[in-house]
Design goal:
The chain has 183 residues and is of the alpha+beta class. It has one domain: Bira Bifunctional Protein, Domain 2 (BirA Bifunctional Protein, domain 2). It has 3 helices and 13 strands, in the order ββββαββββααβββββ. Helix 1 crosses helix 2 and helix 1 packs across helix 3.
Length: 183
């Protein structure tokens, strides 16, 4: 099941931040039964999986976007959106927000001609193929180097990704500790 909204006033972001946005931007939630997911997908890296497929969908539509670990969409050095996943019983819900036309929350917009409906349709078609985790990870692993100039919030602390090691399950080793996206 997929739900799309034309506006969002208090969407859930990471660390309980809210995400708001106006018309022309993309706000969708996709709910999938866990049995539909690739067998090799580590649930702790579901945000990377769903985000990377969206990144590929946007690239196929002509957008130059990349994915910062674990779930943020960037245009150059500017955040334009993100993904959050939540497991509820036997269902995984993936929420995605992307500033397509209008900048919100102090972030940049893609300034794209893509309609939210067209993006959702293309994303669902890509998602229906359910590439395995290994395939998605092998492509994301190459792109991870772009994340090294940034940091992530781990608990109450901001940690640099400059020396992080990306593991095959999508987790990171930062300062000798394994960290999962938990989103």
């Amino acid at each position: 099941m997929a739900v799309i909204s034309s506006e969002q006033s208090s969407g859930l972001g990471s660390r309980d931040n809210s995400w708001a946005g106006g018309k022309g931007n993309f706000f969708a939630s996709i709910a999938l039964n866990l049995e539909m997911l690739p067998q090799d997908l580590p649930l702790g890296s579901a945000s990377i999986y769903f985000s990377f497929i969206m990144k590929q969908t946007l690239e196929a539509l002509g957008e130059k976007i990349w994915l910062k670990w674990p779930n943020d969409f960037y245009l150059n050095d500017d955040k334009v959106g993100g993904t959050i996943t939540n497991k509820m019983n036997n269902t995984l819900v993936c929420g995605i927000g992307i500033n397509l036309k209008n900048s919100q929350n102090g972030y940049r917009a893609l300034e794209s001609d893509i309609s939210p409906q067209e993006l959702l349709e293309n994303y669902l078609l890509a998602l229906e193929k359910f590439p395995n985790w290994k395939q998605v990870f092998s492509e994301y692993e190459i792109e991870f180097k772009l994340s090294r100039n940034f940091s992530v919030n781990i608990g109450k602390y901001k940690k640099s990704l400059s020396d992080a090691t990306l593991c095959e399950d999508g987790s990171l080793i930062i300062e000798g500790k394994r960290v999962f996206s938990l989103r």
